[in-house]
Amino acid sequence: MTAAAQLAAADFVLRTEDVHRSFGGLAAVKGVSLAIKRSSVTGIIGPNGAGKTTLLNIIAGADRADAGHVYLEELEITPLPPHRIARLGVIRTFQRAGVFPTLSTMENVLLGVVERRDETVTVALQGPRAWRRAESGVMRAWELLEQFGLASLANDRAGTLSGGQKRLLELARAVLMEPKVMLLDEPMAGVSPSLVPALLEYLRTMSAGGMTVVMIEHDLAVVEDVCDSVVFMARGEVMATGTVSEVLRSPSVQAVAHGF
Amino acid sequence: MIPEAWQFYIATLIVLYAVTLIAAFGLNLQYGVTGILNFGYAVPIGVGGYTAALLTLGPPQGRFQTYWFGLELPFPLPWLAAAAMGALVSLALGFIVAGRLRGDYQAIVLLAVSVIATRLVQVQKEIVNGGAGLANVPQPLRDFVDSSIAYQWLYVGLAVAVAGGTWFVVHRISRAPLGRALRAVRDSPEVAAALGKDVARLQLLVMAIGGAAGGLSGAMTAQYLTGWNPESWLLLVTFTYFTGIILGGAGNALGVAVGIALIPIGFREATRFLPAIGYPGLIEALQWVVIGLLALLVLWLRPAGIVPERVVAYEPTGRARWHIGRRGRS
Amino acid sequence: MLEILIASIGFGLITVSILSLASVGFTLQFSVTGVLNLAFADVMTLAGFTAWLLNDSLGLSIWATIPFAGIVAGLISVVLNRAILQPLLRRGTSVFGMLIATLALSLVLWNGLLAIVRPGFFFYDMPPVTVYRFLGQILTSNQLIFMGLAALALLSVHLILRRSKLGKAMRAVAANPDLARASGIPSRLVVDTAWFISGFLGGIAGVALFASLPAFDTSTARGLLVVILATVVLGGVGHVYGALAAAVVIGLSSEMVAALAAPQWRDVLALLILIGVLMIRPQGIVRDVSGGREVAAA
């Protein structure tokens, strides 16, 4: 890596370079290069089938790029499996809320909080006292569930929650994990509108504290409210990047937007 | 004083229940807790039985039965070796499927392995005497007691102790933070991986632990019955375990204990006393029909089983207790 | 050595015809309903024994029994699917639950039949044969007729899938069940037809399998299940034409292995193919469903 590139890497916590991915004959992502600034909130917008979720999957390691690279700070994470990328501090949420339906809400959250070194046979055999020690994060989890309006559902199986509640649960867990980069796939879809402003405020605070957020979002009001910069994707390509108003005014976006 | 014939019968029942439970606990850790539909679970059971037999029979004597190798090791080495071999073989199966394959493809591969392993052992007579199997397997600690009835109760003690130990290990694993990670893998490997859980490693771990339990169970069965053959570890054996587990309630030890008492053990014993009707083999065929129908019935009426899996409830004070969740697993 | 190999091609072709019928049937069921039916081999067995009943006690020629056997197997498939599998699916039974259910069904069918016909070996009263020798092959007239029948059956399936309205609907349902239902394709009829056709194919395969052996029993067809699974996976689960191509590959290669080594290695080869295929494209297979249980729906 050249000196200039190293300088650039310091500013940009997450970068993709010419990422390609196709399914069968269909190109879902065609040469996407992005650089995400540290401590920013970036929105990815665009019509259905633009390749947004595919791109997110590739960054998170759940999908493999056919070509191209993904860097987290100076480290190339393209070939890493998803759990390694997660351990490096990139936490994602799923379009169809990624909760564990037979586990309780609290257990879903604890899965993000408990340290990996406590999830071993040794700790398991030591008995309940050691388990509870490993779950020291449970009090913090209660606070957050309270803030997200989920405290009364803490001991219900996550499968019984509503769609919006599942998203909140997933978001709460991601927040508790204090990631470097948070990748959110339509986090506000189905969430009770009364909760949205508080959640966005939460994201802003977190990002001010150094966390980077990349979110796919359809609701432009949300995007305008919380995002520092926006990436517009269509047909697998990045059509425009910039601030919300810049992107919405750009001719290529206008062309796509009027096309549907 | 209970008549000796009854003592024999009761002791046999307890031993068979205990050794079946050992395997069922292992299988439940894999299927009920971690979500690996291990249709190949009979393989570590089979390997465990042969390991114990080969390590106690001594060198091959010739005409009567042919096999490779053969040592005369003292108790408890054959059992430990059987557990280790069960774990190793199971781990090998794990390397094929863990973290790579979708759950239903895992099941198919494991089923194929089980069927083919049985057939190979049946045909390759020189390894462990083919379809006829190994006979005259020595019993552990046989010289320890004089009367055969006392020996029955000694074996009961051994079997119950090992089953208790297996229960302890599996129960602790499934309730600890590790168990929660395993349940997460069961519910969704994708989401678990996105939280940093190494799905393949966790699946391999339970393949090994469950395999050890299977190997141990095989060894203890083989030495109790003093024989071991391919019929002892058919795919069907795995199926009856699955039926017992889903009937009792997958994912929790109590459910497994109830289910195993009902299906492989209770069912077999209940039909033992039926008058012999029809031709030889009729009752056995009808038994399988009924077990198959029972499995379908459980899936239809009570997929969470008699004792549904429980969730741990946390109180705002940080205290935790186990209770039955608001809705059972389907 | 070479002669053995060449001679095994003839046997290979017989295996190919049996295997292609069975695998196309198996994969068709999966493509339309998403069920991996572990009771498939037992439906083949039921058809084979239907033919045996007609052939042995009514004195019908084996050729005349084939349509009956096919129809019986087709009807059994439709009934199993409608009465047991679909209701379970509608109850939200997991993928694992469905696999256990089909394994349970397989046990019920197999042992139910066993209880009726009793353990033992059975054989068909086959018409006298003319032996043909050509290109190093030795084939009997009966074997050639079975190959012809298999080809005819598969060609009919091809025509149904490509030309008929129902076949097109079947492919649409396979591609996207929800969409197909929303766009007004009567999917129940489509599903029933698909299961009938696949059962029919399995039925013919069952008769052909039993006729190709000197004797058979109630577990003979079960022995073929692993090979069918390997074929279906090699062809890409749910892909009818893939299954056909895979049947040719596995049928020919397995007979060569059986001729060179011993018959049991045929199954080992099938297992290796099964594992190999699944390991080479793990990504492709892992992605669509997660571990047999779906991510909780939003």
Report on the structure:
The complex is a heterotrimer of chains A (260), B (330) and C (298). Chain A is an alpha/beta fold and 260 residues long. Helix content of chain A is 40%, strand content 24%. In chain A, the strands form two sheets. Chain A has a six-stranded mixed β-sheet, sandwiched between helices. A four-stranded antiparallel β-sheet of chain A has the order 2-1-4-5. Chain A is globular and about 60 Å long. The model of chain A has no long low-confidence stretch (mean pLDDT 89). Chain B is mainly alpha-helical and 330 residues long. Chain B is 66% helix and 4% strand. In chain B, the strands form two sheets. Chain B has a two-stranded antiparallel sheet. The longest helix of chain B has 30 residues, at 4-33. Chain C is mainly alpha-helical. Chain C contains twelve helices and two strands. Chain C has helices at residues 2-33, 40-56, 62-90, 95-117, 141-163, 165-175, 177-182, 187-211, 225-234, 240-260, 264-280, 282-288, and strands spanning 131-134, 137-140. Chain C starts with a helix and ends in a 10-residue tail after the last helix. The model of chain C is unreliable at 282-298 (pLDDT under 50). At the B-C interface, helix 4, helix 7, helix 8, helix 10 and helix 12 of B face helix 3, helix 4, helix 9, helix 11 and helix 12 of C.
**What is the terminal separation of chain A in angstroms?**
42 Å
Number of strands of chain C: 2
Q: Please identify the structural class of chain C as seen in this structure.
A: mainly alpha
Low-confidence stretches of chain A: none
Mean pLDDT of chain C: 85
- Biggest pleated sheet of chain A: 6 strands, mixed
Task: Determine the strand fraction of chain A and express it as a percent band.
Answer: 15-25%
Radius of gyration of chain C: 19 Å
The helix/strand order of chain C is HHHHEEHHHHHHHH
What are the key terms here?
heterotrimer; A: 260 residues; alpha/beta; six-stranded mixed beta sheet; four-stranded antiparallel beta sheet; 12 helices; 10 strands; globular; B: 330 residues; mainly alpha; two-stranded antiparallel sheet; 4 strands; 4% strand; disordered C terminus
Summarize the structure.
The complex is a heterotrimer of chains A (260), B (330) and C (298). Chain B has twelve helices and four strands, in the order H-H-H-H-H-E-H-H-H-H-E-H-H-H-E-E. By secondary structure, chain B is mostly helical.
